[in-house]
Write a structure and sequence with these properties.
elongated, Ferritin, 373 residues, mainly alpha, 14 helices, 3 domains
Length: 373
Amino acid sequence: MDKIKQKMALDSLDDELNGAYLYDALAQVEKDERLAEVYQRMATVERKHADKWISRMKEAGVSIPKFSPNWRTRVLAWAARRFGVNAVLPTITSMEQKDSQKYANMSDAADMSADELSHSRLLQQVTKSVSGGLEGGLLARLEGRHRASGGNALRAAVLGANDGLVSNLSLVMGVAGAEFQNSTILITGLAGLLAGAFSMALGEWLSVQSSRELYQHQIAIEEAEIASAPEEEVEELALIYEARGMSKQEAQKLAKKIFEDPSLALETLAREELNIDPAELGGSAWEAAITSFFLFAIGAIIPVIAFTFLSGMAAVICSLLISAVGLFIIGTGITLFTGRSILFSGSRQVIFGLTAAVITFGIGRLIGVNLGG
């Protein structure tokens, strides 16, 4: 074993022992016996990994250092004992996500790589479940709560309209400040509307389509894992159900029942482990693109309206007033997510939006004066 591999082995051993120490601490503190058992079993897996590294290093004649938890592990364990598991669980979940691929490029550590990825997914499930409470252990109720997407759709609608309004208002005011003809301002505003709407639509299409392709790839990997190692996948699904509040016996019974039908097993693991709905795969890319186009356009048309029937400074003032009303309405929508008062959110949105418009108007006026000689 050369020096590079030796250092890698020592670092991996240290990581596994720190992980086992931390999960042991969580198991000792966790009041829910089912979750405590899950943490204990995760600690056992980490120790098995550590034993494998120790065995390999002994065979290579590498001396095994005495283990001492690092400062991060000590702090997290102390915080768990002092403030409870929930206080540190998000941090540990984030750490596991970062470490889930640490063995991906090691050909002789495929089994450990699968375990680390499983731990990352499992902790994500635990974090979601405990954030909403485990009382009752009703999976259907948990699923209904975590999969609600109406709030996200409403948020996207509000922000999409806001982007269109603020960006096009600034564009129109910048051109108006340079004292171009009314027809030029109107054409510029419409061009800005179309350019911004198409850009938003394309960006949304690429985002959703890329997510769909990623989900399809993840499902294909999961299908291969079910075919090659069904026992491990049954155990993984059972652990997820245990983390969500079921007893060990109930979880294992349900997992084995599901795996009697391979197609149902794949669909269930896609939902429970990967958080993917195979029927939707994150939604339609075209639907998302079209929706984004119109949401942006709705906001972007507001500053342009005044220039269709007015001209000069009257059109500028009218555009600002209409836009102020639109900004206030958008600010009112934002209160759905922030919980702040309508007056505060609406006024803040108006101030920020009009400030951007005034600045671009001033810059346009400065440029117009310089170009005009």
